[in-house]
């Protein structure tokens, strides 16, 4: 095990280490791992887990070598897999003695115990690989067509999309068809895992294109399930994969230069070597996930540090509660927010507790107040009821979220131009400015007379979506927020049709406030936004990320709809 020094920073959400060298080339698997979690990719270059019985990487490697031997005699469409697996282990062992492959070591890991406690032998591993292949026939690959092998395990090193890539194409047929063998679980079409497998095939096509080899189609063949999934090799799909790979490659080198890697929690966290130590890791659900998580680095390993706050001298150091929110040193939420700007604050004076609010004299119920109201066309109004909270006052017009140029205010109508004074003429009445009101959580977000219920579900959802938009596209949060709203509405309409109400003006980027809040009040809006949040990819431009998440959410909602029909 190599020496290293690494720090997990839970506040910044990053792994800090300068022991990972910037990569000189990329494989698809490395870019895929980086795309899921940059910290997992970086730490994987420092830490190697000891294989256990039925290790999927070891078994998968033997199974691939076994298939390589099988396609060399394609006339045998139903091979005897166990004898081939024994030969595959010997073939891999001999290959790994070559200078270029010595880094791989022996294909059979040392020190692994079989379930009966005895050391695992070549025969044990051969049987594990053969069990994955039992029942699979070569005729299953192309739906009954006999294979005409052109190459197997074809290694290609070339530059594609500006990335120095290396890859090994599992099988290429003389018909121009390409196959990637898969020995794991069968993913559902459209799932993130299935899309990842399709991206890998598109990378292989790009590599083969550099060699002047035409690819007619490419497919993943899941040997344990005898199922093949065809990849979309259209120009648009290839361009999207290229953009994604380039983004990851640039991010990988940038992070390695800086020595800082984002920690991105996902369902894959239990299989990360940082699972036991990472304070942001998603919990392990299920026996397999818990077992996988337990194999990661010990949190007490002296080479790995977990920061309990910000660097020494930072006003937040030591002020953060523990992971369960039960820290002994707690501060008022507003105190913590005040400290976030890192500027020294004057010591707060001790103030007496505030007196209960009571309704005071109405400033409008004076000659001056009535005169001002008349000038603005408000006319005489009855006093508000005594139980109205004082903060429920008309909201001032303000620029749209993120605007710095005084853009259109979403909450208020601009005052009309004041007419020239005329004898005995009364100014036109102006539409009332929207005001905030505090209703019940189950009340609609738009109350009577256009008041906005700050406790309404749609109002809360809009606020949360605005925060999500800022996290996704901080350079233009307005555009990101509108894209999130559109994506959620479109995903819901795709699944539930007219049950998803129209929102006037949404297509033009100026949704009607009442219609928008009524839509966001609905459970369908909630579910669509939740689906988009869970399916949001980690890389790409804000528009690309939201678009991909919206399309995936639509497929997910349609799948749910189909189950309850």
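^ structure tokens above, recovered residues below v
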């Amino acid at each position: 095990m190599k020496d290293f020094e690494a720090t997990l920073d839970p506040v910044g959400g990053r792994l800090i280490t300068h022991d990972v060298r910037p990569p000189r080339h990329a494989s698809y698997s490395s870019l895929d791992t980086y795309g899921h979690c940059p910290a997992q990719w970086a730490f994987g270059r420092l830490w190697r887990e000891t294989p256990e019985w039925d290790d999927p990487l070891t078994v998968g490697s033997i199974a691939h070598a076994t298939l390589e031997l099988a396609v060399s005699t394609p006339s045998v469409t139903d091979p005897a897999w166990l004898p081939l697996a024994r030969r595959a282990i010997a073939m891999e062992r001999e290959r790994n003695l070559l200078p270029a492959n010595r880094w791989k070591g022996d294909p059979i890991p040392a020190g692994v115990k079989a379930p009966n406690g005895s050391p695992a032998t070549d025969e044990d591993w051969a049987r594990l690989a053969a069990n994955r292949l039992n029942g699979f026939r070569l005729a299953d690959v192309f739906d009954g067509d006999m294979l005409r092998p052109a190459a197997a395990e074809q290694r290609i090193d070339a530059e594609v999309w500006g990335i120095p890539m290396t890859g090994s194409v599992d099988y290429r047929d003389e018909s121009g068809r390409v196959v990637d063998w898969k020995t794991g679980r069968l993913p559902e079409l459209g799932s993130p895992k299935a899309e990842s497998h399709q991206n890998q095939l598109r990378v292989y096509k790009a590599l083969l294109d550099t060699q002047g080899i035409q690819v007619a189609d490419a497919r993943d063949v899941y040997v344990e399930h005898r199922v093949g999934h065809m990849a979309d090799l259209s120009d648009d799909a290839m361009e999207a994969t290229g953009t994604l790979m380039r983004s990851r490659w640039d991010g990988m080198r940038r992070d390695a230069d800086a020595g800082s890697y984002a920690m991105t929690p996902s369902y894959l966290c239990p299989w990360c070597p940082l699972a036991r130590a990472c304070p942001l890791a998603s919990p392990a659900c299920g026996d397999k996930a818990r077992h996988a998580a337990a194999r990661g680095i010990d949190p007490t390993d002296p080479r790995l540090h977990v920061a309990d706050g910000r660097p020494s001298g930072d006003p937040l150091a030591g002020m953060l509660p523990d992971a369960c929110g039960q820290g002994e040193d707690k501060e008022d939420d507003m105190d913590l927010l005040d400290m976030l700007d890192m500027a020294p604050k004057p010591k707060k004076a001790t103030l007496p507790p505030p007196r209960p609010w009571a309704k005071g004299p109405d400033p409008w119920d004076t000659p001056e107040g009535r005169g001002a109201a008349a000038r603005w066309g408000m006319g005489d109004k009855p006093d508000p009821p005594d139980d109205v909270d004082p903060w429920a006052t008309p909201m001032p017009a303000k620029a749209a979220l993120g605007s710095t140029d005084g853009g259109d205010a979403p909450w208020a109508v601009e005052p009309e131009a004041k007419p020239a004074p005329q004898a005995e003429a009364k100014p036109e009445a102006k539409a009332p400015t929207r005001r905030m009101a505090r209703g019940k959580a189950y009340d609609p977000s738009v109350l009577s007379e256009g008041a906005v219920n700050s406790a309404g579900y749609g109002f809360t959802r809009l606020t949360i979506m605005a925060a999500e938009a800022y996290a996704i596209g901080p350079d233009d949060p307005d555009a990101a927020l509108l894209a999130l709203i559109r994506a959620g509405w479109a995903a819901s309409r795709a699944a539930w049709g007219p049950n998803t109400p129209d929102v006037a003006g949404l297509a033009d980027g100026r949704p009607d406030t009442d219609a928008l809040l009524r839509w966001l009040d609905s459970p369908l809006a909630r579910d669509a936004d939740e689906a988009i949040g869970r399916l949001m990819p980690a890389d790409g431009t804000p528009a690309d990320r939201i678009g991909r998440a919206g399309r995936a959410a639509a497929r997910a909602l349609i799948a749910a709809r189909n189950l309850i029909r």
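The first helix runs from residue 28 to 36.
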